[in-house]
């Protein structure tokens, strides 16, 4: 455990956890980086369940999926696209919210994404978590991960994990907050911006919220998956 903490403090997270989906001119792709990493490996992906490489399911990889409510995702994604060089300019917020509802953003429709993974639970065993639950009771969600990973840890380690994974601690940690990542502009927006539940209320107009509610009801009418806004 001591060695793990030392690595966490010395290497940025984008080096410790490779991004499967990453690719771009002049830089190694995510898969190329993963080929050079020793097992066991931690892999990050934003892919929809339907297009995740079949080997992940065939090899029974331990998969943890984290979902967040649509309104906060839309706001967070808007500010991320404003500062990430690899993404197209999002335009105004009024323009972007329509782009988001149409699903014309990287990794596709939010509704299809969360529902696709939710349905995949019927075929494969993996852990489906909610961002809102993580904010509400971090230790409870940490223990869910421990159970899923077949790990038993003493309470002092759980306390340490909880303390070091709070949003504010990670926001202040240069090994986690992407301040050393060369492809985003922190002068426009921070990578770790607010991390709260309900920030959409500071961005949506009344009219936008009414339109978005109709979109949400339409897209989520065929599932028992629910979110807290």
From TrEMBL:
Domain (Sulfotransferase): residue spans on this chain: 12-223
Gene3D superfamilies: P-loop containing nucleotide triphosphate hydrolases (3.40.50.300)
EC class of the enzyme, as a word: transferase
Annotated EC: 2.8.2.-
Superkingdom of origin: Eukaryota
Signal peptide: none
Record Pfam families: Sulfotransfer_1
Keywords from the UniProt entry: Transferase
Family: Belongs to the sulfotransferase 1 family.
Protein name as it appears in the record: Sulfotransferase
Source organism (scientific name): Staurois parvus
Taxonomic lineage from the root: Eukaryota, Metazoa, Chordata, Craniata, Vertebrata
